[in-house]
């Protein structure tokens, strides 16, 4: 029996293979540090985006409540869309202090909940109520991303997984990067490195 995405509204990172059918697409362009920029991204990676001295990430958002079942217990994060996380998740956020000088941040389409101005705050839904090694059941018809919350990527039945990352060089002067609540695993303080789990 085919597994569908669980009910509720939420966002996933968009892979190069595209979004699930009838989900909405959006993008966020972050103007990263101008001076001695050290942005980096996994090579190879499977993100639908552009990565150089600045960062453009694409998102897939489920905007309707349709679906069946529920998100399984486990050890992973998704991105929040709307006022509430699906049942079983706790909410949190990551705040990027983007480039101050001639800031060119931009956005389009449907984005996860957060704040998108001269700086960037993205809200997440995370859970750590199960072991990453206990494989969970999610749709396997096309690749997708979850985010890592602790030591390893959550296993998914019928899918291979590889960890990929995006590191942004954030504002050097009076850097105000911060996190709150339950958020994905983040390396770095003045810069931000997030760890994504690519399922294929």
Order of helices and strands: EEEEEEEEEEEEEEE
List the uncertain runs: none
Strand content: 35-45%
Q: Between the first and last Cα atoms, what is the distance in angstroms?
A: 19 Å
Query: What structural class results from the helix and strand content?
Result: mainly beta
Helicity, as a percent range: under 10%
Mean pLDDT: 97
Radius of gyration based on Cα positions: 16 Å
Q: How many strands, what sense, and barrel or not for the largest sheet?
A: 10 strands, antiparallel
Overall form: globular
Q: Tally of extended strands?
A: 15
Number of helices: 0
Characterise the protein shown here.
The chain is mainly β. The chain is built from no helices and 15 strands. The chain has strands at 10-13, 24-30, 40-41, 49-51, 55-62, 75-80, 90-96, 106-109, 114-116, 120-128, 144-147, 161-168, 178-181, 186-187, 192-199. Strands 1, 2, 4, 5, 6, 7, 8, 9, 10 and 13 form a 10-stranded antiparallel beta sheet that branches. Strands 3, 11, 12, 14 and 15 form a 5-stranded antiparallel beta sheet that branches. The chain starts with 9 loop residues before the first strand and ends with a strand. The mean pLDDT is 97.
